[in-house]
Amino acid sequence: MIKKILIFICFFVGIFTYGQNKPKNIKIKTFIIVSDTIQIDSLSINPNYFRAYHIDNQLIDSVYYHVDFVKSLLVLQNNFDNSIKQIRVEYQELPAFLTKTYRAFNSDLIVPKTTDESKLFSYQAKNKNNFLK
């Protein structure tokens, strides 16, 4: 009986401690606020893990800002407190292979549609040397 209770307790302790872990690859950056738009990163941000804090570690409510997760932009709303000069952001960026643009063909090699087809191809005959005449 005691063995079953001990196994039961160990099982639930393992579940609860696993649920408290933070995701991997968390980045933390601090920004000085000079405008209402802040470029956070060059890669896209995971929308499931993003938090903004005051410099004194108080969580900022999401009604005071909007995040463009694809462009990695933090836009402060008009009702944001102007006395705050710094903001700390915790986020998880998406891997580069998820945000990269893939194409079957190189777009630099595609010729735009044109009505003058002579620009696409021109044939020039080689001059024959009439040396044996």
Beta-strand residue percentage: 25-35%
Strand pairing plus helix content: what structural class? Answer: alpha+beta
Topology, number of strands: 6
Distance between the termini: 114 Å
| Parts with pLDDT < 50 across at least 5 consecutive residues | none
How many helices? 2
Mean pLDDT score = 80
- Net shape: elongated
H/E series: HEEEEEEH
Q: What is the makeup of the main sheet?
A: 3 strands, antiparallel
Order of strands, main sheet, comes to 1-6-3
Helix content range: 10-25%
Indicate the radius of gyration in whole angstroms. Answer: 30 Å
Topology:
Blueprint: H1 2-18, E1 26-32, E2 37-39, E3 45-54, E4 65-68, E5 73-76, E6 86-93, H2 96-99
Antiparallel strand pairs: 1-6, 2-5, 3-6, 4-5
Polypeptide structure, described:
It is built from two helices and six strands; from the N terminus they run H-E-E-E-E-E-E-H. It is α+β, with helices and mostly antiparallel strands. The strands form two sheets. The protein has a three-stranded antiparallel beta sheet, with no helix packed on it. The model has no long low-confidence stretch (mean pLDDT 80).
Name the features.
single chain; about 130 residues; three-stranded antiparallel beta sheet; elongated
Entry summary:
This protein is α+β, with helices and mostly antiparallel strands and 133 residues long. Helix content is 16%, strand content 27%.
